Amino acid sequence: MAIGLQDLKDKVVIVTGSGRGIGKGIAEAFAEVGSKVVISDIDAETAANTAKEIAGKGVETLSAVCDVSNREQVDKLINATVEKFGKIDVVVNNAGITMDGLFIRMKQDQWQKVIDINLTGTFNVTHAAVNVMRKVKSGCIINISSVNALGAPGQANYSATKAGVIGFTKALAKEIAGMGIRVNAIAPGFIETPMTAKIPEKMAEEMIKAIPIGHIGQPLDIAKPILFLASDMASYVTGEVINVNGGLNGV
Ligand code: NAP
Q1: Ligand 1, atom 39: nearest CA belongs to which residue?
Q2: pTM, rounded to two decimals
Q3: How far apart are CA 224 and CA 209, in angstroms?
Q4: Ligand 1 geometric centre to CA of 124 (Å)
Q5: What is the pLDDT of residues 10-63, one digit of tens each?
Q6: Ligand 1 atom index nearest CA of 24
Q7: What are phi and psi of 96, to 5 degrees?
Q8: Distance from the CA of 163 to the center of ligand 1, in angstroms?
Q9: Which residue out of 30, 85, 123, 158 is catalytically annotated?
Q10: 36: helix, coil or strand?
């Protein structure tokens, strides 16, 4: 009986949008337990810098530029990973954006871009990775949703994608469990990253006051349950959404 995260050593893990923010924290945590990490981001420079930092922990890394909404670039990411490491054990679909605005003023491209990256991006990477995983009947997909899947004013586009990610997770988990692939999601609350740094200070203070645990979360708070989901500790967990939000109402 193996209790712990030791099985994550030498696992090959792709984290999208991992140049900075939560994705970077997730990549660092996998490196901490000895996984081989693919740092993939739309921004070449942050991807390369993060990969370099993480390689300093003594693990193998690959830095890859990939816009998850572009299927050609996604296929290149998957091929480059298999070429370098020979397999893909875990994919964390973390890349995501916000383009907030009141619905009555929301432009078509403000809607479409968020759908393309947050939802279609999750489809693209998962679709390409599952094709590799199913051949060895093993794999793990972890999708990043949000507490705002419940619906947040000014985020009709974002909330739609994050609720969509939950439906996608649950449907796919049922469909591919027989292929030895588990699919789960994490719904973070308010986490300190460049994305949330855009929130006006007064509003951020109000948001923090509403968190029962009493403070904003850090990327590592999200990374820890992701390690659990990726490991054998969660071998009987699929189609699940874990709320990681300091006690806010969950999805
Ligand atoms: P972040 O600080 O903005 O980091 C997101 C990363 O994804 C950035 O490096 C960004 O690159 C990259 N990215 C953007 N578009 C991309 C694309 N098309 N393809 C690949 N990479 C792309 O955001 P975060 O706060 O870490 O959020 C990470 C995930 O957690 C997102 O899915 C977000 O919706 C979710 N989430 C965050 C919070 C929170 O409170 N922070 C709460 C709930 C859920 P650039 O720097 O070039 O833009």
Answers
A1: 191
A2: 0.98
A3: 24
A4: 16
A5: 999 999 999 999 999 999 999 999 999 999 999 999 999 999 999 999 999 999
A6: 26
A7: -165, 155
A8: 16
A9: 158
A10: strand
